[in-house]
Each structure stands twice: as structure tokens, then as C-alpha cells.
Amino acid sequence: xxxxxxxxxxxxxxxxxxxxxxxxxxxxxxxxxxxxxxxxxxxxxxxxxxxxxxxxxxxxxxxxxxxxxxxxxxxxxxxxxxxxxxxxxxxxxxxxxxxxxxxxxxxxxxxxxxxxxxxxxxxxxxxxxxxxxxxxxxxxxxxxxxxxxxxxxxxxxxxxxxxxxxxxxxxxxxxxxxxxxxxxxxxxxxxxxxxxxxxxxxxxxxxxxxxxxxxxxxxxxxxxxxxxxxxxxxxxxxxxxxxxxxxxxxxxxxxxxxxxxxxxxxxxxxxxxxxxxxxxxxxxxxxxxxxxxxxxxxxxxxxxxxxxxxxxxxxxx
Length: 317
Prior knowledge:
alpha/beta, Oxidized Rhodanese, domain 1, 16% strand
């Protein structure tokens, strides 16, 4: 394991053995430095705590995948449940009332620890985590390797939907705007004298403009963008886990950026870029990282915004 052992997981294990609830008081005793490392949980750690009543597991995949088999006790959510529909384009941050309504309907309590997973290198799971960070919900962990890692350890899989009782989940009034950046702020960073680095975390076909995914108004990229495909950070050939920190650092070093640089990540709709945000901020310690939530879906919608492309757009899917 390339990060520290999760102190929070150990706390949950102790609480589970004595069959008592995790209290807000005990959660608050964990320092921010320690908690930063509890955003990742390994499958062997989760095996010991997943049945604790104060652990809620979120299967962040489409309902079809969930119905075909999920971790025992998991609740199902997907992107379409978790976005703001008031925009003329998809994928924007959900409203606070949407989060409260969803979590209440799923029986999630404010004092619960949420473990989220997917089957795509934690890309969707980390997007969920990023949204939670925006709403200052810190008790969220990502299952490294997702459902595949769970299966490798013969964790329980079921096709039965999880039963739950509705709760009354509430959010605080403040949001963490420091992790997000708007299109107008991105626009202000463009120019010859800009010291900001813009990372396009999509694939080469999207970056060049050859491919236009559903939801985008045109193919291309934001000017000054540097290509950094998000999935370089995933060990696909082995276990779909995040690569060791040493390997991640080598990948980022090749971009010739430093920890003090201002870095903006974006992709198609803020999902893959949230993953790269996590790698840079939480694993590599970069201090000034912002995820552009609207990403190319929003940027391409506005004709007046500048863009670049290297290819005729041939694919639209």
C-alpha cells in the first residue's frame, strides 16, 4: 500500500467489535492530515468494516450494472441522479437540496461514513467524492480498485437490492468553492502572460477535436491546454487500482509542473478531471489545483469562447 494505513478504518473496526455507533465527537478527533489519507480504503480493510451500521456503501454505476451484481449492502447512485438539471447542458454539480433529498431517501445519516466504488478505475467514485468535498462532507472514502478489488478478495456479491429506512440528511450552509473554477475564471487565465496550467484529461481524439462526445456542441479543446489522459494514473494491466505514488510522480514530472503552480483540470463533464484533481491534490500534494466542473460540455456550448482543434471532427458518440 502506498499511502498510510487508514486510522479512520481502524476506528470503525474497533467500534464494530463493540457494537456501538460512531459518534460525531470521535470523528472530530481525527486531524485533517490523518483524514486526508482515509479518502482511500483498500478492499481488505473494507472487508472488516463494511457491515458496520454506520458505514454506507455507494455503488456509483448504472442501475443495470448494479442489478447484475453489487457489494452486499450497497446503495445505487448514478450521474443522472446527481447533477443540476437547470443548465442547458449536462453534468453540472447537483444542488444542495438534490443531495439532501437523495441521501435522505437512501437512509444515509450525517454521521455515517460513506464508501463509494465503481468499476472504472475509481473515476466515477472520485467524481462523487469531489462533489462531497464541495459540500464539505469529509467522511467519504474511495474503494481502491472498485468492485474488481472486492471480488478478488471474495467479498460478498449479491443481486438483491439493499433495504433501508429513509433518514433526514442535511447539509451545512457553506460550500467549498476553492476546489472548483468557473468558465469565466478559466477564460481569465488564458493569455500569453498566464502562469496557470490547464490540463485536458480526456483522450487524444477528444483533445485533437477528432471525437465529439455526446453532450458537446463541437469538437476541440480549451486554448493552452496540455494533454494528460486521466487513465495513465490507473494500473489497468493488473488491478484497476491507482498506481503507486512514485509512478504517479514520474507521470506528472514529465509535464514539467511544480507543486506551487496553479493547475486547472477539465475533461468532458468534470468527471475524469476530478480524478486527476484527486491524484494531484490528495496523493501528490499539489496545493493550487482546481477542477473545472463545466468542462468541455459547458465550454463548447458558448460560441464566443475560444477553442483549438487539430482535426476534422469525425466521430460523435
